[in-house]
Protein 1
Amino acid sequence: TADSKKMLQKERRGTLFIDTQRKLNFYLRALWGRDFFLRPTAADYEGFKPYIDHFVMHLPDAVDDIEGVSGLALYRAQAAHLAAHIQYTRAPISAEQLSPAQLFFIGLVEDARVEYLAIQDFPGLQKLWGNLLNVEQSQNVEHAGLLKLEQFARCLHDASLKNDDEQLDALAVRFHENIATQSQNNQFSWDLGMELFHVFAEKREVPSLRILESIRLPYRDDNRFVWEFEEFDFLAHGAEYIPASQRQVRRYVSAVEMANEVDCELAGDDAQEIWICSTKFMPYEDAGEATVSFNEMWGKDPVSEPYHYQEWDYQVQLYRPDWSTVYEYRPKKGDPDDIDNILQEYKPVAHRIRQIIDLLSPAGVQRVRNMEDGDEIDINAAVDAMIAIRMGEQPNTRITMRNVIKNRDLAVTVLLDLSESTNDVIEGSDKTVLDLTREAATLVATAINGIGDPFAIHGFASDGRHDVQYFRFKNFNQPFDDEAKSRLAGMKGGLSTRMGAAMRHAAQHLLKQPERRKLLLLVTDGEPSDIDERDPQHLRHDTRKAVDELWSRGVMTYCLTLDANADSYVKRIFGENNYTIIDHVDRLPEKLPTLFASLTR
C-alpha cells in the first residue's frame, strides 16, 4: 500500500532529511541571520540535484555518506550552497539564445562566484565545500571533457590548484585575479563561462548534456534559480514569500460535504480553505424558505490585483503619483431574459437600430469613379471623352477609377456610471436611472454588435481613492451572449463617482485593441465626486486631465450625461463638441444608439 511504501522510505539507510531539518534551519540562521524554507524531495532516481523553486530550497529526502564525508556534512554543504544563491544572486541571468551546454558552463562559474562571496563572509565554508570537491570518486568518467570540468571547478575553488590544460589554467587565474572586483556582477560569470565553452568547443570536447549533468559535484544544485527564461520580478516574489502550508486554498465540494461543515461560516479572510459548493445548496434552518444559497450568504468574490493611477492636483499643477487605486470586481449575475425583454419593449428603437446597422456596416470594395489619378481606366468615361473630342468639345479628363476598401477600424468601450444616484426613481415613472442605463446599454450593444465593431461594456463606482470599483460586464473578446447579458442584468448602483481613475483604467483595456480608432463613450448622471474629496473642483480638473491624456494616446472620449444642470461643468471637462445633455432621462435608450451612429458614421 501507499502507507507501507512511505514507511519503508522513512526507514531507508543513510542520513534522513527529517532527522536533520531542524539542525539545518539553525545552521543557516546562524550564518545569515534569517530563515530559509527547506523542503524534502524524493531523490530516488539517478542524477537528482537540489534546486530552488519560488525561494524554497528542495533537498533530497535522504543522503548517503561519501567516502569519509558524513551525510550531515553533505546536507550542510547543499543547504549552504543553495542559501548562497539566494543571498548573492541579485538579478537573474538572461538565458535567451543560449544552448543547454552554454547554460551549464556559465552556471559552473556562477556557482564559484556565489561561493566566493559566501567564503568571504564565512571562511569555514571553504573547507566544507573543499572536502566534497576533492573526494576521489570510484567510478570511471565516460568523457575526458567531464574530468577537465571537475578539475576546473576545484581550481576555481582553490587558487593553489592547477589544471592539466594551459587554457583552463589561464581562465582560472583570470577568475581569481578579477573576482574581488567583479564578485557583485554576474555578468562576469556570463563572460567567463562563454570563454570556457569556446575553449571546449574549439577542441570539439564539449560533452553531451546527459554527460554534463552527471558531473560529480555532489552538493551543487541544478541552477534553475539563476536563469531568467521569462519576465520575472524578483522583489515582488521574494520579499514576502508565503509557504505552501499557509496559502489559501479554494475547494469545490459537494452538497453533503458542505452540509457537514456549516459550522465554520464565521471564518475570516485568513481562512486556510474556502469551500465552494458546486450546486446551489440552500440552508435547512429556514425550513425550505431560504432565498439565498450558502455560497451567496458567506461567499466572497475574488478581487483583482490593485491598479494604481496618478491624479492631477490643479492647485499645485502636478500629478499625485499612484494616488487612486482601482480594483476589478466580478459582476453579479442576473436573469438574461430581462435583457431580451428590453429588446421586446423597445421594438421601434430596435427597428431604427437595424437601419443604423445597414447604414454603418462595412460595404467591402467600392468603385470610386470620375477620378483624374485612379488605378484603372473607366471605359464608359473614356468613350464619352472620345465622343466629345470628335465633336470638337472639351473632354472630361476624369476618365479613371479606383477600387476603395470601405471598412470600419474602430473599437468602443461603453463606460457606465454606477454610483448611488443611479438608484433614484425617475419623476413620473417607476423606473430608476440604473434601469434606463441598463436599457440604453443593451440597445447600443445590439447596434454595435450588429455593425461588427469590437466593443466592451464596463462600469465603475468608488468608495474613496483607495477603492475604485471596476466591473467588466462584457469584454472585447467575448460575444454578446447570455453570459454577458446575465452580467448586464445583475448590474447594481452604489457608492460615488471617481471618474478620472475609472477612465484611465478603461483606456488601458481599450489601448490593447489593434484598431486604429478608439472611442470611450461615458454614460453618467452627475459630476465627478467622491467621499474623500471636499473640493468639488479637484475631481473635475482631474477628469479634464484624464480626457487630455486619453486624447494624446489616440482615445476619443465622449460623455452622455443625464444631469440637467451639467452645463456648468461638462463643457470644461470634455470639450465643446464632446458631450450631450439629455434633459428627459426616459429618452436615454432611444438617444444612445443614434448618438453612437452619429459619432462613428
Protein 2
Amino acid sequence: MSIYGSFLSDEQFQCSICLDAFINPSSTPCGHSFCMACISRYWDGSKVCQCPLCKKTFQKRPDLQINRTLREITDQFRSMRGVGREKKSEGADGGIPNGFFDELKKKLPRPLPKIPVKWNHEATADTTLMASSVPNSSPIAFMMPPSGPPPPPPPTYRTSNRRRFTVTGAASSQSLPLCEIHHRGIMIYCRTDRLCICPDCETEDHKDHDTVTVEDQWRDTKAQLSVSEKEIQDMIRQRIGKIEEIKMSVAELELTFERDTAGSVCLFSALVSAIQRSQAELMEVMEMSRRAGEHQADAMIRQLELEVEELRRREKALAELTQLDDALHGVKTFPVLANPPPAKDWSCVSVNSDLGTGTIYRSLAVQVERFQKELRTVAETGFPTLVLEPSPVRTQSRIKRVQEYAVDVTMDCNTSHPRLILSEDMKSVRCGDRHQLLPDNPERFDRVVCVLGRETISSGRHYWEVEVGGKTDWDLGVAKQSVNRKGKIDVTPSNGYWFLSLRDKNKYAFRTEPSTDVPVNLRPQKIGVFVDYEKGQVSFYNVDSKIHIYTFNDTFSECIHPFFSPCTNKSGKNDGPLIITPVTLTE
C-alpha cells in the first residue's frame, strides 16, 4: 500500500461539492462521483437536475445509489494516507526511504571489531588506514591518537606461507596502528577469521590461515564495492520502473472506468428508450383499436335498433288486425303482415376485441433479445475501446421528419382570456391573478383560460414546439375556427378541440370522449405539435426524449388554429409561462 500512496492524490478521492474526501460516494449517469448527501442537497429544490461538473442535464432526477466499491477504495485510501503522513519523514516525498540503505547494510556481513592497539608517539594524528574486513564490506578506518608508548624496534618476520615482512624504521614512520598484544604494526588481514592482525598474531594464532596484506585485501574489496554499488543501482531502477508501471496501470484503470461508465449508460438507455417507445406505441394502438371497436359497436347497435323498431311496427299491425271484424280486409292484409321483414342474420356477428398489440410486443421482444445478446458480449469481452453511439431509432427519424415542417407561430391577443398576459412578441403566455380590462369582442374566450394562434391552418403540414417545463397544468393542441368561445365549453374532438392536457404535475390525458389518461414516464420539458390537414392528424411529441406521445385521427372540415392554455396559476404554483420556441432540427 505504501507504493500506491506515492502516486495517488487526495483530489482523486475528493467530492467537488464539499471539497472533502468522499462520504458514501455515488456516481451520476454521466460518470462523475459526489458524496450522496452533497449531490442530493445540490439537486433539492431544482427544477432541472444537472451534473455540477459537466453540466449534463437529466430529464428525470437519477435514482442514485451508494458506489460501494468507490467507498471501500476511499476508506482504504484514508487509512493509507494516515500511515503515509506519519512516515513521510522516513523518505523523500514518497521516494526511497532514508533508512533504505541502513536496512540493506544490516543484511551484509558484519565488519571486524576494532582491535585495541597502542599508538606510536611519533605518528601524526590525522593518518588513517583503511582496511576491509570481508568482501562487500566497508573499509575500517584506524585513527591514530596523539599519544602512546613507543613501539619496540620491529624485527624481520616470515609468514606461514613464506611471505616475508620487514618492519623497519621506515615502516614505523608510516604510522600503522599497533597490535595491543605484540606492539607490532597491523598490516595483515586473515580471510579465515576476517580479522586485521600483526605478524606475531599470524604466527601464534593464525597458522595455516588464508592471510594477505591489508593493501591487497583493500584492492579486492574496492572491486567488489563497485559490483555492490551497481547491484544497488539496479534495484533502485527496478523499483522506480515498477512505480511508473503502477502509475500507468492506475491511469488505464481510470480510462477503463470512464469507458465502461459511458458504455453502460448508453446500453441501458437504449433499452429504456425502446421500452418507453413501445409503451407509447402500445397506448396509441390500443386507444385506436378501442375507438374502432366502439364505432363498430355503435354502428351495429344502431342497425339493430332500426330492425327492432320495424319489427315492433309489424307486431303492432298484427295486434290491430286481430281486433278487426272485417273478414275480407283481414284475409287480404294478413299475408302481407305474416312474412317477417328482411333482416340481417346476427348470430355470427360480434365486436372485434383484438387490440392489435401483438406486433408491438413481438418487436419489443426482438429488441430485448438484442439487448441480452449485447449484454452477454459485454460480460465476456467488455466494452470496446471506442464506444459507438446508439443506432438511430424509428421515433427519432420520425420527429426529425416532422420538424422539417416547422412554421412560425404567434398568439392572437384578440382571442386571449382576460386573465392571460402575453409577451410583446406574442410568443409567451401566462395566467395573471386578476382580469384585465379588455374589450369583450366575439373572438375572445371569456370562460376558458386559453388563447388561439394567429396562423390559420387550412391545408398542408405544420409543426411547432412549446416549452412547458416547470408547470403543473397546461393544455396544448389545435381548435376549429368556429368553436364556441363564450361560457362553459366541452373541449372534445366532436366540439372542435384536439389537445393534450397536464394536470397536477404528472397526470397526462387526451380530451377524447371520455378523456384518456396516458402514462408518461419521462416528463417532457418541450412539446412538439404536428398537424397534417389532409390526413386529419394531430400528433404530439416529447421533443427532448424524441418520443412520439399520441396522434388524433379525424377529418377537418374547416380552418383550425393552434391552441394554448397555461391554465390558472393556482396561487403561484403554476405561474410559469408557455413559450413558443424556435425549432432546432434533431440530430
